[in-house]
Write a structure and sequence with these properties.
By secondary structure, this protein is mainly beta. The protein has one domain. It contains two helices and six strands, in the order ββαβαβββ. It has a three-stranded antiparallel sheet with strand order 1-2-3.
Length: 106
């Protein structure tokens, strides 16, 4: 069961993240507790070329299931930051999507 979380940047925690992690955990562990989250991938400046990668969500069916059992499609926003912006960062927001293969359960 994958989800997306922001990676805080230290020492300053930003309001808008530079990177996101796609993580997963066995569904049974969500229902009964326990288990460990596994990092499936990272969406960040190295991948997108954007200073900010944020506001992510996972594409699902109308019933809340993943579109496929062996892959995940993540939709997220990218934007510029600081001196890299020509004007206000809010006007640079763009919506992207990426699809990745999920690793086998361990």
């Amino acid at each position: 069961m994958p989800c997306v979380s922001s990676i805080p940047t230290l020492p300053t925690i930003r309001l808008i993240s530079a990177s996101l992690q796609v993580v997963s955990i066995a569904g049974v562990n969500v229902r009964i507790g326990g288990g460990r989250w596994r990092v499936e991938g990272e969406i960040g400046p190295k991948l997108t070329g954007a200073a900010r990668n944020h506001n992510a969500g996972i594409a699902r069916t109308p019933h809340g299931m993943l579109l496929a059992t062996d892959s995940v499609r993540v939709v997220f926003a990218v934007s510029c930051a600081g001196a890299g912006c020509n004007g206000r960062a809010e006007w640079s927001y763009d919506v992207w999507a990426i699809q990745g293969t999920l690793s086998a359960a361990r």
